[in-house]
Amino acid sequence: MSSSTVARALALARASHPGPCFAVTTISVLIAVAAGALDAVGIGVLVGLAATVLAGQLSIGWSNDWVDTGRDAAAGRTDKPLATGTLPRGPVLAAALVALVLAFGLALLLGPATAAWLAPVVGGGWVYNLGLKATGLSGLAYVIGFAPLPGLATSVLPDHPVPRPWAIAAASLLGLGAHFVNVLPDLAHDRAVGVRGLPHLVAAAVGRAGVSDEQTVRTAAVTLLLSASVLIAFAPGTTRRWLVVVGLAVAVLLAAVAARTRGRTPFRCALAIAGVNVLMFALGGADLT
């Protein structure tokens, strides 16, 4: 394999937004394990679920960079392979469409219920990329994309049980919090290219009181994620109460650090709270279905 082929493959991987792809895939598999999928359906089905979610997330990541190529180039984003010309746009769009078809093909192999739950998860990401990102409804796309994750995870179980409302609500808060976290590093870039999503509108409204955009978005992100922490900690049927109490304490501590620091630290704290929430979700032993 030539060096140029390797370089292009690595650039394609970077354009997929590997961090979010890995995170959402991991969340889905952990929730499925927490719901008893390992014993009920086995490791093969879990691998199939992981492949399904990963393909869907790859399609979202690649389509995002394909849609935003012009904006990213105008803002001088050297970390974006399409914006710098390292990757041509055509193959990236093709990769996104192939991944999209593959995701639903794999989902149908797992069953119609899995495909049905996958539709809003992937659809939320695509409608965000195709225009909702720059509007006040941007947060709705994240809720649509995250709220069904517990249902997607439990869809591989026998009888495809629907998750309890608390699980869907916690996933929604986690998704909305993730939206505010994701825009934190890009606030200046978004202003430059005219993106005015929900976090930007909230920041503009609060900014009239003299609060900076970064502080507003950071506070909103931490508040949403902490709300998810509280909901998960007090979920019905929790069997490992000590674990969720420790998790909630860690989340509160991270929120306090985020409130008192500047630079990249608040962003990292918000990401850490999201990670703690996922662990509480997966390991707390709450009654998911």
Shape: globular
Distance between the termini: 48 Å
Low-confidence stretches: none
Output the radius of gyration. Answer: 19 Å
Mean pLDDT: 89
The H/E string reads HHHHHHHHHHHHHHHH
The major sheet is characterized as: none
CATH top-level class of the largest domain: Mainly Alpha
Coarse structural class: mainly alpha
CATH superfamily of the largest domain: UbiA prenyltransferase
How would you describe what is shown here?
The N and C termini lie far apart (48 Å). The protein has two domains: 1-158, UbiA prenyltransferase (Tetracycline Repressor, domain 2); 164-289, Four Helix Bundle (Hemerythrin (Met), subunit A) (Up-down Bundle). It has helices at 3-15, 18-34, 37-40, 43-67, 69-74, 81-84, 89-110, 112-129, 138-146, 149-154, 165-183, 187-193, 198-207, 213-233, 241-260, 265-283. It is mainly alpha-helical. The protein has 16 helices and no strands.
Q: Concise description?
A:
Helix content is 76%, strand content 0%. It is mainly α and 289 residues long. It has two domains: 1-158, UbiA prenyltransferase (Tetracycline Repressor, domain 2); 164-289, Up-down Bundle (Four Helix Bundle (Hemerythrin (Met), subunit A)), CATH 1.20.120.
Name the descriptors.
289 residues, mainly alpha, Tetracycline Repressor, domain 2, Four Helix Bundle (Hemerythrin (Met), subunit A), 2 domains
